[in-house]
Structure formats: C-alpha cells, structure tokens
Amino acid sequence: MPRPPAAAAIRAATSFLHAGRSGVVLAYHDILPDSADVYQYAVTESTFLHQLDIVAGLGLRPVTLSEFTDHLLAGDASGLAAVVFDDALVGVHRYAMPHLGDRGIPWTLLPVTDHPGVRPRWWSEAARTMSRAEIGEALEAGATLCGHTANHVSLPDVAPRVALDELTRSRNILSEWAGSEVRELCYPFGHQNADVRALAARAGYRVGYSFTNGRSHPRTDPFAQPRMAMHEGLRTKAWLTTLLRPHLTWPKVRDLRDHAREAGR
Hints:
Number of strands: 10
Distance between the termini: 51 Å
Number of helices: 9
Largest sheet: 8 strands, parallel
Structural class: alpha/beta
Strand content: 5-15%
Shape: globular
Order of helices and strands: HEEEHEHEHEHEHEHEEHH
C-alpha cells in the first residue's frame, strides 16, 4: 500500500491531536530582525512568521492566554494555541506586534512590572523591555496581559513573603494597566514548587505555566502547566514534529530549580 501524502498524514495527526483535549502555549521571548545575531530563545522575524504559518496550516486557533485557560479549566483546550511573549521585550513591539495585528492573531504579553523600558538584568542579550507607553500601545492593539512577577525573581529562591509580594503586587499592577483582572501566571525561569504553587493561588491566580516543554492538558495540575519554549531552530520539520507530538510523550513538569541543583549547576 502506498504511503499517504504528507498533507494527508498531517491532517490525520492533527485530527488525532484535536481529539485529545490538550492545547499549546507558545512561549516567545525576543523577536529580532533577520539581520541580527540570534541568541538563546530569540527568534528572527521571518522564522516567527514561518512558525505562525505552520500553526495556521495545522488548523490551530490562536487565542489569548486567558481564553486558553478558560478552555483548559473547562476540560478541553484541543485545537487551541496561545501566543505569549515573556518579559515584554521591545523586539516584540517592533517586529511581532505589526504582524499579529495584520493577521488578526490574539496574543498575550508578560511585562515584569517593576522594569519597564530598561535593559533587563535577567536577560543581558536583550536590547530593553517595552516602556509603559509601548505596553499601552500593545493593549490598544489587542494584547492581553499575564503575570510574570514584579522583578523576574526565581520564586522558590526567595522568602515566602517576598514571593507573595512579587506575585500579588505584579498582578494588581497588571490588572490596573489592563483594566480587567489578570489571573494567569507564567513563572520566571519556569521555577516553581509546591510552596510557590500554593502562593500563586493565594495571590489570586487560577493557573501557573512553567517553562517545561509540553502540551497543556486539563488533567495536569493547573499550577504546573507546561508551555512550548520557542526558538530559532523550530523550523518546518522540527516545528511540525513538536506541534504534533502527543501529550503523553512529553515529560512531566518539575521544579526546574531543583533539577539545576541536581545537575550540579
């Protein structure tokens, strides 16, 4: 029997994944012009557009992280893709925002609330974060906001009172900026543990996303959800393989800070 055409195989795999109740959160950081030197987790403008083309080609529906979470907590995020940008870096404003508007793609921005318009101390390769005015422009362009703390700290490494302040204060500020309550959180560096998860719930969040690669599934702990770490190497074959990889084949989310210690780093 002849092998089915690639398009037919992709359609079959996509139909299977759409029936599995899991969805994907695409975790971007910086977007760079094609002429720039690419650093870890940065993506050039053309690669970013290529990745979005493949998402669209597979029939995945882009949604804000808030809408994605609504479906996830209701028990079915199948067929959904949330496009999010950690740290609100200025490259997103310059090289991603215009395309997202042109394509009508909902998206979510993760500002570090105490550090607008500055060189981020946690991300030395980046030019700077968005200014408060640029964040406002993103909101006017249709972006939604998500919590990412006030100072981009590793939450398991600070005292509980400090972690709670980072979580609560940033959520309150973002809710004020957005004009609506922000209840989604992405942990800085993906670092979280049982204590941090409990603090996130206490701070008023309803979900916490890590930085472990995987598909988000309703059966997973809402405060230990995975995302897809986007980078320049995710082009055609690698990106298709990543998007079509079934939920159960991905590793479980774990405390990445503990993993680093175990590895001797």
